[in-house]
């Protein structure tokens, strides 16, 4: 293989010398690069069949084939072996009782050494299991094999073949402890060796505030948000990140399934920008598509750096014919979100608990039939509580939060719809109210005191649309195809848009949207 | 209402004077704009309660409240009336036998006049029904009401209240004729009046080649692709367009459901470009996400204008851990596409027939277990058939088509996988074959002789990756976060990407990808 590194004779021990203490401060990027290069060279030398490594002095190892770094060529789709891997989450008491032989693959989350024994905690997804190697006759485990296990670096990808068993003592820090099983290792191979000095320790990135506040807790290093995001592909291995990503997936899937079941025709999207996408969706309705929706990336040149804005987010956008009232759109919002809340409570209980244990949050309160208040009613509530709002203006973040608290006190819900917004704060294509054009057939939706959705009936008559555009100083010629389309016979219609990262952030009670996006982008961050 | 047009006294007849003959050539944009403005003004004058219109000379109409143009304010979410609309597709013989009263809304596809009678064909989605008005005592239909119906413009949005009945004669040109029902109109209101001179007639846009070839068929105007795309929001009302969009939706939903069921974690996407998305997906695998997928818009600066390229398309991208072989990725492709084929055959029979009747195509042939040929085997087949290919090059479109024909003859399938492509024609991150680095662990997938998917095992070792990048002259520093991520312990992985518009185009046997995208974009088209 031309891509193969030349043979060399580095011992596994060479790597361990580089191992950083668990609590050292986060290394600089330069230090990291240097040690990465060093480790890379060492790893290249290592990625040879273990047989070629010199045995420890004075010992020929009859079990040499049962461990080692897997040579690169064996990772290049050499054969379909028919070997069967078991998922870590499927290791249970039944497997232990039957002393089942299994083959598992995972990240080496922890490597512990105890005399002639080694312990490797393997993690797969959000599950982990302790793998035990005890050197001694009978078990097929040699001292060299134990030494190899001890030489593994944290977060390396490792294959373990062994027998599921009940451990002698209760294990700490593995998810399979409830089922109280471990693996007695017979074979162990390293598929991909991690550099010894990782950007930070995953335990540190997974610690709750409560742990920091415990006696001795202040000694733990804190991993800052920028460091986390700089190494996002590494950071997302923590349980909370995995849980948040899974919840995001579930919210997205539930949205798609709900919309699909409501016979919303799927829109094949063109998302130059939020606004462009909205116009295209309206044109799809003019085109007779009746109900369209889209879940996909949206780009917005967002200059403000806040806890809840991103330049790129996952938009859920719905546009639909209505027969007579924008409440038909509110009904879809209502049904969709109540079904999402129920789905998560049912299907993502564990994930919510995982997040809650690192970042505690209040359980979500909502009503079966979502509360609808008019903007004026909302203003009145704020006024009575001492907050005066510019009557034809918009709510600022602080007023939103306060209104959220007032509504929760009075109605017992974290989720409500505020409708009949002043026309002045809505886009030109928003249909004004029939009885007062200073108000509009529009609504915002709030979750835990923050806005997550904007929606409205849209103007479908070309005359009114042109007039409204002109009043706002919008040059109709820049959107002539859009304006013209309404002259071909246009159904009454309305729609709404939500940013799913913000929805997930609030559902999980997180305080930053950057914890929800896989690779967040804002005015200050364009990588990784 | 400030947005209301001033009252005026135009009669409905004024509009009909503008009605273009059905077969006139497509008007110019300028003409269209002029007539649009004229119609707009007329429509504004019209959008007044019909009661305010002067009755025809010599006749007070006791039924004046039963028809007319709906005033704008009545379309502004004035009330939730509790009225219940029936779907056109639900009108059936049982409804006719029970003489059921219904309220339907649709586009006025056709307006016919016969003495004291008027016929309005209402279309909703891909269903349509004939609505009959016969002036005479007893039925509550006045001569003025019939005149109003005759004055409707094609493609206006119209509400009809009436009684479902069996027609006296067999109807032609409505989908509900199989169920042989029509509606005896009691009330008729125009919700949104279309301009009298539409960009083209939808029947012309819906005609098959066979119709043009029939005696007299050459008199029909042909609607060219550019005209269609200029008025895309109008053109997509044709049955074939509606069918294609519905099939697109189904392909997308089936892809998402299949991937979701296979426990592929959903990826929250950042799609700057095809390549960037691929790198991010690999990083998600490094981050322990195991299997990720995404269905969403992809942008590519595509300069070639071909029948199968767009600058924006809907990408289906999958990235997944593999245990040992890229065939595990092929297995997902195999399962996904066979399930899509079956789903469409079962759920979209009508839609496929609709498309087939305008643009005839061969039924798709596929095997339960998808055929896998090596690139070398494919080259050998071509060679034996007289086509010599540069052995380490790529297939051009012509060779692809020929290979598709040869495979279909020999194996009886339109769908197959070609694997072990030359490394030289694949991206730098493609894993080379273990036994010959000139070939790679990669594959393309073909449907009806055209490539729809590229996939491969990816390089997971940082050393090999850096070396390959260097060989290709790629500056590693431009993607340092990506390169670095593989040093944190990287699972073996592979993935694939498909463009769904191209998939749908080939499934439906269409000859242009522009018929599949809602608003196609290429180097020559940026609007609508």
UniProtKB/TrEMBL annotation, chains A, B:
| Keywords in alphabetical order | Aminoacyl-tRNA synthetase, ATP-binding, Cytoplasm, Ligase, Nucleotide-binding, Protein biosynthesis
Record's compositionally biased regions (Low complexity): 9-23
PROSITE patterns attached to this UniProt entry: AA_TRNA_LIGASE_II (PS50862)
Instruction: Identify the residues that the record assigns to the Aminoacyl-transfer RNA synthetases class-II family profile domain, covering every copy.
Output: 291-528
Q: Give, as one word, the top-level EC class.
A: ligase
Sorted alphabetically, the Gene Ontology cellular component annotations on this record are: aminoacyl-tRNA synthetase multienzyme complex; cytosol
Q: Which InterPro entries match?
A: Aa-tRNA-synt_II (IPR004364), aa-tRNA-synth_II (IPR006195), aa-tRNA-synth_II/BPL/LPL (IPR045864), Asp-tRNA_synthase_2 (IPR004523), Asp/Asn-tRNA-synth_IIb (IPR002312), NA-bd_OB-fold (IPR012340), NA-bd_OB_tRNA (IPR004365)
A GO term, aspect molecular function:
RNA binding
Region described as Disordered: 1-69
Under which name does UniProt file this protein? aspartate--tRNA ligase
Query: What is the species of this protein?
Result: Panicum miliaceum (Proso millet)
């Amino acid at each position: 293989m031309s891509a193969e590194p030349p043979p060399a004779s580095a011992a596994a021990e060479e790597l361990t010398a580089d191992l950083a203490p668990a609590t050292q401060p986060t290394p600089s990027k330069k230090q990291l690069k240097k040690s990465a290069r060093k480790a890379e060279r060492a790893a290249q030398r290592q990625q040879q069949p273990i047989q070629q490594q010199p045995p420890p002095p004075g010992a020929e190892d009859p079990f040499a084939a049962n461990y080692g770094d897997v040579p690169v060529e064996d990772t290049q789709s050499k054969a379909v072996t028919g070997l069967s891997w078991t998922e870590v989450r499927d290791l249970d008491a039944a497997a232990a009782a039957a002393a089942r032989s299994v083959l598992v693959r995972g990240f080496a989350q922890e490597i512990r050494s105890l005399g002639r024994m080694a312990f490797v905690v393997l993690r797969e997804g959000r599950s982990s299991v302790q793998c035990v190697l005890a050197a001694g006759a009978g078990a097929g485990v040699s001292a060299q094999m134990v030494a190899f296990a001890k030489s593994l670096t944290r977060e390396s990808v490792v294959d373990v073949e062994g027998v599921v068993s009940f451990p002698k003592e209760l294990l700490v820090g593995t998810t399979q402890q409830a089922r109280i099983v471990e693996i007695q290792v017979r074979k162990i191979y390293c598929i991909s060796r991690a550099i010894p000095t990782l950007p930070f320790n995953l335990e540190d990135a997974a610690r709750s505030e409560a742990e920091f506040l415990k006696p001795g807790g202040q000694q733990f290093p804190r991993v800052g948000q920028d460091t986390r995001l700089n190494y996002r592909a590494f950071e997302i291995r923590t349980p909370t990140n995995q849980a948040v990503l899974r919840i995001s997936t579930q919210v997205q899937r539930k949205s798609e399934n709900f919309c699909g079941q409501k016979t919303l025709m799927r829109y094949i999207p063109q998302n130059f920008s939020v606004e462009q996408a909205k116009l295209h969706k309206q044109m799809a309705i003019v085109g007779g598509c009746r109900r369209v929706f889209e879940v996909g990336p949206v780009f917005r040149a967002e200059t403000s750096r806040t806890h809840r804005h991103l330049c790129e987010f996952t938009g859920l956008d719905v546009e639909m014919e209505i027969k007579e009232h924008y409440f038909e759109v509110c009904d879809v919002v209502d049904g969709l979100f109540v079904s999402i809340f129920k789905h998560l409570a049912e299907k993502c209980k564990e994930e919510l608990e995982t997040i809650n244990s690192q970042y505690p949050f209040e359980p979500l309160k909502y009503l079966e039939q979502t509360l609808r208040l008019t903007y004026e009613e909302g203003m009145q509530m704020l006024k009575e509580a001492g907050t005066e709002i510019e009557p034809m203006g918009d709510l600022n973040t602080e007023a939103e939060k306060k209104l959220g608290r007032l509504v929760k006190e009075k109605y017992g819900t974290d989720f409500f719809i505020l409708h009949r917004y002043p026309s002045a704060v809505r886009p030109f294509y928003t249909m004004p109210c029939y009885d007062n054009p200073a108000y509009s057939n529009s609504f915002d939706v709030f979750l835990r005191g923050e806005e997550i959705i904007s929606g409205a009936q849209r103007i479908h008559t070309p005359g009114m649309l042109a007039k409204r555009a002109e009043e706002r100083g919008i040059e109709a010629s820049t959107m002539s195809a859009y304006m013209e389309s309404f002259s071909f016979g246009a159904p009454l219609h309305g729609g709404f848009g939500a940013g799913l990262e913000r929805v997930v952030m609030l559902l999980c009670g997180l305080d930053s949207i950057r914890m929800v996006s896989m690779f967040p982008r804002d005015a200050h961050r364009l990588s990784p």
